[in-house]
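Input structure tokens:
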């Protein structure tokens, strides 16, 4: 399992799994918009230089502030969404991020054998607590309604549950092998966990801290995002598709065909628009959640990053670990 998480953390390792034929196909892949309303005007509006190897990204819509985890620099950068300028950096080992807009706390995983989640105060820009979790904590998600944080521990095939009130682990939940992505639906208090090697998505009840269902999907599921307004969950698959899951029935109700393998994914619930990074062709596919079609694809300067959306401004932020940048996508509506 250790070799799998290194393939996620180190971009070169991820690229290396492609055969020469696959690499050539990826380089020339074209993601054509499908039937439906075109996302006219969707473009890269700004490119912001941050620290080295930026990966995780999260937005606080209340303050219009973006936070970026710079893995090699060992910092978390803060960016003003209004000016597009870096406003500061917090020194902490960082890989991925989640933020609770109610408490203004940021939760930072370190992707190390000695698993830790750092708790940062967005107001003071200081580390206020460090929470021990499992080995190789990669991704993290927050339920702001319950003030509970969920962390995937890839080497242990578990999810750690952290109380935001006490900054202590309250439960450890077994999930599928090599958990890769995690997302929370605050309205239903359900947590969705993808697995690289298991053909299923684990569904966790936030009330009981137990797995209540395993949704069958294709192999290679990694990114996951939730639209709480429509109760739809979007899961990126290794078969060049994004699966659409009904939160009510825990079943796949459709899929969106991609021109390349999708990686990380995010949703703008205000516009029902999904953003999926196509790592090996350096594009972001913009998907209509209503029509379940790709409306456009925007070229970016680096794959292997993450994406986050500010639903109030409609802007999406994409990290570029190969270029040490964050690119801002504007006027993108599926």
């Amino acid at each position: 399992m250790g070799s799998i998480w290194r393939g996620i953390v180190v971009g070169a390792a991820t690229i290396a799994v492609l055969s020469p034929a696959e690499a050539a196909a990826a380089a020339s892949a074209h993601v054509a918009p499908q039937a439906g309303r075109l996302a006219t005007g969707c473009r890269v509006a700004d490119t912001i230089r941050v620290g080295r190897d930026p990966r995780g990204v999260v937005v606080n819509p209340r303050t219009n502030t973006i936070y970026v985890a710079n893995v090699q620099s060992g910092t978390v950068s803060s960016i003003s969404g209004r000016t597009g300028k870096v406003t500061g950096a917090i020194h902490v080992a960082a890989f991925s991020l989640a933020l609770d807009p109610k408490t203004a706390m940021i939760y930072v995983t370190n992707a190390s054998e000695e698993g830790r989640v750092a708790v940062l105060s967005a107001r003071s820009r200081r580390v206020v607590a460090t929470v021990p979790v499992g080995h190789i904590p990669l991704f993290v998600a927050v339920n702001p309604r319950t003030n509970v944080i969920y962390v995937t521990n890839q080497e242990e095939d578990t999810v750690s549950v952290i109380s935001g009130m006490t900054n202590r682990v309250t439960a450890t939940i077994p999930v599928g092998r090599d958990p890769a992505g995690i997302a929370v639906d605050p309205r239903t208090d359900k947590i969705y966990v993808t697995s690289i090697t298991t053909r299923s998505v684990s569904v966790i009840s936030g009330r009981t801290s137990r797995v209540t269902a395993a949704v069958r999907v294709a192999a290679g599921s990694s990114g996951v995002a939730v639209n709480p307004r429509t109760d739809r969950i979007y899961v990126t698959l290794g078969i060049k598709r994004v699966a659409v899951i009904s939160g009510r029935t825990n079943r796949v109700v459709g899929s969106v065909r991609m021109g390349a393998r999708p990686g990380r994914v995010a949703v703008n619930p205000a516009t029902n628009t999904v953003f999926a990074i196509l790592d090996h062709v350096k594009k972001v596919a913009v998907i209509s959640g209503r029509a379940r079609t790709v409306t456009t694809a925007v070229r970016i300067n680096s794959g292997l990053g993450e994406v986050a959306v500010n639903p109030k401004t409609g802007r999406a932020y994409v990290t570029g670990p190969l270029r040490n940048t964050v690119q801002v996508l504007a006027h993108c509506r599926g």
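The chain has a mean pLDDT of 89. The longest strand covers residues 43-49.
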